[in-house]
Design goal:
Elements lengths: L16 E2 L8 E6 L2 E8 L2 E6 L17 E3 L3 E3 L6 E3 L5 E3 L12 E4 L2 E4 L5
Antiparallel strand pairs: 1-10, 2-3, 3-4, 5-6, 6-7, 7-8, 9-10
GO molecular function: 2 iron, 2 sulfur cluster binding; metal ion binding
Keywords: 2Fe-2S, Iron, Iron-sulfur, Metal-binding
Protein name: Rieske (2Fe-2S) protein
Length: 120
């Protein structure tokens, strides 16, 4: 089980973070513009999802900003204990089983993670 702290706020077009800022098998919270997101990492693969549970549209993180992940495979909603897969955001267990998180497109360049629509 891992949890992580928020990343510093990125300026428009700036990198969200360095890939190594996201713990391998863990998470990092960030913002793409005004959208709060959760970044997940397994090895060199990185995914981003809107920080909103499809169950009741509450944030996935706990009040202090921690996002729980397990076995580098799933993240857990702090409010409903729903489990979501890293690779596609699909809820595999919990009250919103079968629903999915809203993916946010990313690109990784030279070890830095960017929103896909940002310029370098």
């Amino acid at each position: 089980m891992t949890s992580c702290c928020p990343a510093p706020e990125a300026a428009a077009g700036a990198a969200l973070c360095r890939i190594e800022d996201i713990p391998d098998g863990g998470s990092l919270t960030a913002a793409i513009g005004a959208r709060p997101v959760i970044l997940l990492r397994r090895g060199q693969a990185v995914w981003a999802y809107l920080n909103r549970c499809p169950h009741f549209s509450v944030t996935l993180d706990a009040a202090h900003g921690a996002v729980l992940t397990y076995d580098a495979q799933v993240l857990m909603c702090a409010h409903h204990s729903a489990l979501f897969r890293f690779e596609d955001g699909l809820c595999i267990e919990g009250p919103c089983q079968g629903a999915a998180l809203d993916p946010q497109p990313l690109r990784v360049d030279a070890g830095r993670v960017y929103a896909a629509d940002s310029s370098q």
